[in-house]
């Protein structure tokens, strides 16, 4: 006796009640799955971009806005700060700060943000890539892998940026040239265009003639120093000890000159006048001692800058979302509960019209256990179909949400990530189907064959 075939045929003969139960069950399962997937993936995105950043420092305003704009690039910056105010935190050798990364923001290209920064940002995210693929001069850019793929950018391509974070505003006249593409990082760097901070000063007219003359003078001094050093090396061939000293000094000076040559280096940035502007700084502490933990409060109380802790602000953001998330989860569980009642009523009410059918099955040799499992199987069939439809709704919702996030913020969610939570949802859904069918199944298995058949004959 094929119980599966009989159960399927019984469901086909009462489509109205089955479809209602199926829709309710699918909505509940779909909502629960969707919320868990979104919650997990968003938290994963935020955690991947923390990058060990202890403090974000920028202009006064909303601390959450400062964190979202500087770390996640999904909000407008709170404003600009002067290099003079930022300089103490950017200098190497700070007793509390291990790494400081300056950011200059305000331009974009086809929806992807352009960030003026130094090479220290790659160290912050622990990204290693070939030196020749890094931006070094003004108007050179290195693009994230998502930018390169979505905009079909290759090394050597040129483009003009837009002022602001949309393409509706005017474009700058100066071309930016792609010199490299970052490897996949699974961080926000995948969707950024990185360039030197000075690129912003040039494009926005902040680079004065005085600064240009200063740069040329410094380059000239470096050339003179290099020439003098070469002459010293030549004369030192007569003395081995002098030769060794000159060689060691030459290595250090060549390294320093190489760093000075890069307009994307921190040392180059620190040589600029105090009045030039950057947007914010990402700070990483040397250790989490008392002084480091109080640095943010000291900055807020004693300077014109604002310091925000990413961990605190992100936790605050999630706490704001938790209430809405909990309300939707409660609604989803309520729908699942109602669907369970619907399955129960559909099976229970159908027993009154199926008593003769069940008695006939018993006469044909079906045992009480087989009748019991027939009703359980029908409940499971409804729940399985509801689970499948629920996951279809869940992943469709994820696709629509991912498309919206990608369109507005260049973030995307992975639509097909089957996780442990999905396994628990499936098991819970099957459990609901069994529980809803349990009472009807018990009653069906206890059917009095002789009584029902006698009633049937009397009725006939």
Short description:
With about 450 residues, the protein is an alpha+beta fold. About 60% of the residues lie in helices and about 10% in strands. The strands form 2 sheets. Strands 1, 3, 4, 5, 6, 7, 8, 9, 11 and 12 form a 10-stranded mixed β-sheet that branches. Strands 2-10 form a two-stranded antiparallel sheet.
Tally of individual domains:
2
Report the principal-axis shape: elongated
What percent strand? 5-15%
- State the helicity in percent bands: 55-70%
Segments where pLDDT lies below 50 for 5+ residues? Answer: 208-260
How many helices in DSSP terms? 16
The description of the largest β-sheet is:
10 strands, mixed
Radius of gyration: 34 Å
H/E series, N to C?
A: HHEHEHEEHEHEEEEHHHHEEHHEHHHH
Structural class: alpha+beta
On the 0-100 scale, what is the average pLDDT? 79
**End-to-end distance:** 28 Å
Number of strands: 12
